[in-house]
Fold this protein.
Amino acid sequence: MVAAPWVSVARAQPPPFPTRLIRVIVPFPAGGGVDVFARPLAPALSEALGVPVVIENIGGAASRIGSLSVANAAPDGHTLLLTNDTLVAVDAVNPASSGPALLPSLRPVTLAIASCNLIVTHPKSGITDVSGYLDALKSRPGKVNVGVPGWGTAHHLTSAALNHQLGVTAEHIPYRGGAPLLADLLGGTLDVGVVTLAAALGHIQNGTLVGIAVTSKSRAPSLPGVPTLDESVAPGYEHLTWQGLLAPVSTPDSTIALIHAATVKALGHPSVQDKLPGLGFDPVARPGEPFGVLLDDTFKRFSAVVAATGIQSSRT
């Protein structure tokens, strides 16, 4: 892969910004982990920028459709992408078969938050804990249905990497985002799902779903009773997901700087600060350059998972 152009884009006289409503594209259906973060962020970002900020969900193709809509938008800062590490996963899983690579067309603005993914099941699945999940994978090789928010998403690669380490296989079922996955899980038509913690947290707290394990090195404060994979069945395993803002690649430096400063201010807003811990989100607020380094590092890590597991972008 040719390295994405994280370098600054120079313009002699950048246009005024902002001058109108700002669209923040979430490339997943409503109700998933990214959407859950976007909802409290939008009003705080609007207050910081002084113009309306609206969230628009454009799901499909493991986030590719919504991400491409931002990549092809005017580079004036009025159309932004709020996404997670699935953006990188899509490029790592053989992008030539599904269209142009996304990363070279987008410019990182702010790495906003970090979180963990969660393995979750239904109370009637017969799987009550992470040891039971491993037993099911071993006793029914390739037959345990594991829902993921799209084929080739970060959640899919997270699950595939875990299975590779454990020496087991599962049947990954791709969905158009975390919300429809959880709907089927609640309905009992799935054995297990892999989602961002925030997407399933409420269901676990009210007892309609069961958290099996988190992918972070330490237990999530919002789910202290759910073990990590590292402490249970997969020593050394860790995967942290993240969410951040990106813009079309030719967006001027001054506009990027304004959006980043406003996002940092929004992340510090009391209304956002009050919600983040309960959702399992840790604020990060890093600017574009270190965010770009993370994108490159994540691509290398996901590419290694793809090489080890043989995942191809043949399904969406």
Remarks:
- The radius of gyration is 19 Å.
